[in-house]
Design brief:
Helix content is 37%, strand content 26%. It is α+β, with helices and mostly antiparallel strands. Strand 3 (129-132) and strand 4 (138-146) form a beta hairpin. One of its GO terms (cellular component) is extracellular space. Residues 41-178, 183-334 form the FAS1 domain.
């Protein structure tokens, strides 16, 4: 009888010890959770510092005094241009970033930061979805499928790395530095370009400048001064003397009632590498993708060609964003007829 009682007692105390042990483990787990609050050393600024390919973005954050923001509680989303993207934008070294104008770097860095956690890979499959930046600017995100791969772009810039997590947000690496837009309308952006003075005056003379001040969106393929001169409009006086209706007919063939970045064509074009763009006058322009010489089988640009153009028209400047559209600058006038 005593043996039976002893056995039962041992079983009872063994069970009690198991319960106590589990309770202690649970208490320890709860205590660990309580101390796992986000720390400054695993925040977005630390992610930037730890990534060797983002040394120029770190220099930009330093120059613009954005470090406190990137170590704040957040949440934030950072679209960080790679070092190669800064080089392409004219900043070959960290020193060139660190000695740039403070107000410029503040605008640029703030344009690459979003309030909130944005999972770009969960956005709808649509072109140019508008989101707002930390400093109030507009960005346009595209999520699309190309050759069975999901591709993300921001203002036509490729997203290279998605969802590098920090305790106060997310960081994505992009292949081009995004320039904050300075102009609310395409008309203003064209007027501000010294090399588009003839095209700008033709817009005013034709009456189309008022249209491009509207809500939009519009994409303008503006012929530079050399192109306008070659076409026959060599001076402002010649344009002023031209028939406004003739000018309007010419310029409507350079405007699309849509927001179109270069990479939008690359994403939406099939295996033929050729597509068309409907213009404001209801005529079409042929769009041909240009191969990327560094990546066989891929494309990195476009050319345009109207029925009257003997050769493809090249873009000398692309993806200039404004509040109501996009500006591309071409090296020839687009022609409907020869």
């Amino acid at each position: 009888m005593m043996t039976t009682n002893t056995t039962l007692s041992r079983q009872y105390f063994s069970r009690r010890l198991v319960v106590i042990g589990l309770s202690l483990l649970m208490a320890g787990a709860c205590k660990k959770d309580d101390t796992d609050a986000p720390k400054a050393n695993d925040r977005l600024m630390e992610v930037v510092i730890d990534n060797f390919n983002l040394s120029k973005f770190k220099a930009a954050a330093d120059r613009s005094s954005m470090q406190p923001l990137l170590t704040s509680a957040g949440p934030l989303t950072v679209l960080a241009p790679s070092d190669a993207a800064f080089t392409e934008a004219g900043y070959p070294t960290t020193l060139s970033v660190g000695t740039a104008g403070i107000s410029l770097m503040t605008r640029i860095t703030g344009y690459h930061i979003l309030n909130g956690n944005y999972d770009l890979n969960k956005m709808p499959f649509l072109f140019n979805q508008e989101i707002r930046t930390y400093n109030g600017g507009k960005l346009y995100v595209t999520r699309w499928v190309k050759d069975k791969d999901t591709v993300l772009t921001v203002n036509g810039s490729r997203v290279l790395a998605v969802g590098m997590k920090a305790s106060n947000g997310t960081l994505q690496v992009i292949d081009r530095m995004l320039e904050p837009y300075l102009y609310e309308t395409v008309t203003e952006a064209i007027s501000a370009e010294p090399g588009l003075s003839l095209f700008s005056h033709a817009l005013q003379r034709s009456g189309l400048s008022a249209l491009l001040k509207g809500k939009g969106p519009y994409t303008v393929y503006a012929a530079n001064n050399a192109a306008m001169t070659a076409y026959g409009y060599k001076t402002l006086e010649q344009i002023e003397a031209a028939d406004p209706g003739v000018l309007a007919a010419l310029l409507r063939y350079h405007i699309a009632a849509d927001r179109r970045f270069v990479y939008d064509y690359i994403l939406s074009t099939g295996s033929s590498a050729a597509t068309t763009q409907n213009m404001l006058d209801d005529n079409i322009v042929k769009v041909q993708l240009t191969p990327d010489p560094l990546s066989p089988g891929l494309y990195n640009g476009i050319t345009l060609q109207g029925p009257g153009n003997d050769a493809p028209v090249k873009l000398v400047k692309q993806n200039g964003i404004t509040g109501n559209g996009v500006l591309h600058i071409t090296d020839h006038v687009l022609k409907i007829t020869k």
